[in-house]
Amino acid sequence: MTTPFPPKQMLALLVGALLATTVHAAPASDAELLAMMKTRVDVDHAGTGMVVGIIDAKGGHVLAYGSLGEGGAPVDADTVYEIGSITKVFTATILSDMALHGEVSLADPVVRYLPAAAAPPAFGGRQITLTDLSSQVSGIPSIPGNLAPKDENNPFADYTVAQLYAFVHGYTPTRAAGERYEYSNAGVGLLGHALTLRAGVDYETLVRQRITGPLGMASTAIALTPAMRQRLATGYGMPGMAAANWDMPALAGMGALRSSTADMLKFVGANMGLPKTPLYGAMQAAHQPRHAVEGKPELSVGLGWHVLEQHGSHIVWHNGGTGGYRTYIGFDTSSGRGVVLMSNSHMGSDDIARRALNSAFPLIVPKPMAM
């Protein structure tokens, strides 16, 4: 059950709903999208290749432009990218599915699934719950304060579970959990870890058992198979400068997955109910807005997913970024259209993805985006 919003949050959501009453514009055409993709790659130097997938009740199709890397083979629907923080909605789907099956409760304090050495401090007696972690209101800082990577190009590779426990147990909260949205990579990383302890398997196995196996997503994983590695796009941190791939063994639930556009279209389609799968109930529950985002009346957050009410659209979405990749998935419930965008760039292209849903969204001069 969704908890009632405080009056301030309810007001913000109502304002967001009013902003969404604008007449919905048509999505950008395939030709327009390809022109945008070409400009982003060739003029803005946002990586070497971009793939956009579109899905609706009639089916799906893919647009691709560019190459796997400098002088590489062309990109296509099966090209593999790091999807970064889109991993968070996989973590949210697992949480929602476990809750529907009675394996956890959304209101459970996370400490119930952690060793005592990892218990996060309470503020005013309010424990951090699983829902708090997934909906980004835990109050846990986004980046662990004890992160000290040996290799700054792969910053989470040597961060350990013991370090995560020490950080979570030792940080000093400044407010109670549930009070305010504040995006936390570490918070969702902790959630993913807690769910693995509850399930008794590692995160990659948990994702395969609960999501990618049932949905037939054979190109979505953490560890690259030889076939996936052959299809992996080279990431670029800056134009012409290849970036290292990122590994995050202790914090996998926040951003460790790699995938292809073809696989992500299956995931987006399942979230849209195209077709309905055994995960659909859990997915729908995760889409429901739970908290407003302060200062952004058009934006709210569910379990993992963000919800944007603007230009006549109701878009459920998340984006992702690692050292050399930027990605986006989302779907507009007002038009029944979904989108996947994959890029091997240091710059985001959320604007192109949103125009694939509704051309009223503007193109934006791209800037480097943090994870």
Task: Give the SSE map.
Layout: H1 7-19, H2 30-43, E1 49-56, E2 59-66, E3 80-82, H3 87-100, H4 130-134, H5 161-170, H6 185-199, H7 203-215, H8 226-230, E4 236-238, E5 241-242, H9 252-255, E6 258-260, H10 261-272, H11 280-287, E7 291-293, E8 296-301, E9 306-310, E10 313-321, E11 326-332, E12 337-343, H12 350-355
Antiparallel strand pairs: 1-2, 1-12, 3-6, 4-5, 7-8, 8-9, 9-10, 10-11, 11-12
Structure description:
This protein has one domain: DD-peptidase/beta-lactamase superfamily (Beta-lactamase). Helix content is 32%, strand content 17%. The chain is built from 12 helices and 12 strands. The chain has helices at 7-19, 30-43, 87-100, 130-134, 161-170, 185-199, 203-215, 226-230, 252-255, 261-272, 280-287, 350-355; strands at residues 49-56, 59-66, 80-82, 236-238, 241-242, 258-260, 291-293, 296-301, 306-310, 313-321, 326-332, 337-343. A hairpin with a 4-residue loop joins β8 and β9. α3 (87-100) packs across α6 (185-199), α3 (87-100) packs across α7 (203-215) and α3 crosses α11 (280-287). The chain starts with 6 loop residues before the first helix and ends in a 16-residue tail after the last helix. The relative contact order is 0.21. Residues 1-25 form the signal peptide. One of its GO terms (molecular function) is hydrolase activity. Keywords: Hydrolase, Signal.
